[in-house]
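Data availability (excerpt). The following record was deposited with the supplementary files.
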Amino acid sequence: MDENNDTSLLVIVLDTNPSQRIIRENPHHLTQCLDSIVGFANAHLMQKAHNKLAVLACHHHATEFLYPNPGKPLDIRQVDGQYEQFTLVEKTIKQKLARMINEAPRLAAPTESLLAGSMAMALCYIARINRNKPAGVKINSRILVVTGSNECASQYMTYMNVFFTAQKQNVTLDVCALDKPLSLLQQGCDITGGQYLKLPQLDGFLQYLLWVFLPDPQMRCKLVLPPPVKVDYRAACFCHRELIDIGYVCSVCLSIFCKFSPICTTCHTVFKAPAPIAAKPKKKKMKT
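Predicted structure:
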């Protein structure tokens, strides 16, 4: 099949957790990010008539599809001067996100975002689209994660499973960090051949999206993009959720610990305590 007829599937995972620092300091930033995401999504659909789009909202309690609507499509009135598909994308995303935020339970304390689970849902959606595609159609799939949350080492195993599953399915993972650097997601971008960007400032967010993440991965080698950052491949220990250089690995479930433990807290396997190293006997000096 001609490459011009290939379909590009873009799945956007947007972190809408109110515990993010940029949203706590100014809730208007969520509206600003949402407008930029809608403009970026419509630009992706505008590139080719066969392009497909999906948008997921990652909240503190659940992950939901904002687009496409799993039920009956919304009844959208025609807006003069705007393409009907663009109007449908904008109205559907904003209405479903507003309903999700209004129905979300109130937070008593800051909680982490369910990013790893949201990325797993995106992979499941991509697998279903590939399974139901017509014969002879090639779909180039990629995931874009937009988040301002901090690093979450408690989801380390789920992150790793998602990264290597995406690599096996030839799904490219892109990440746009809005607040702090994310070492685990940097690993995912490097494993799948995606692009990682730590946003310098929130102003101009749409311009960064269009510049870095709108081109397909096959075209990025011909463009001038930000240089790749050095990836930190250290693992996070399962006991304190901190990145370590040297640790102990369970031989059964491959859990990682910074200190020796006779019982694995993940699979409850019992290990023998290491025997102390016996001191070598000193050689007696021969008398002459």
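Summary of structural features: The two ends are 91 Å apart (CA to CA).
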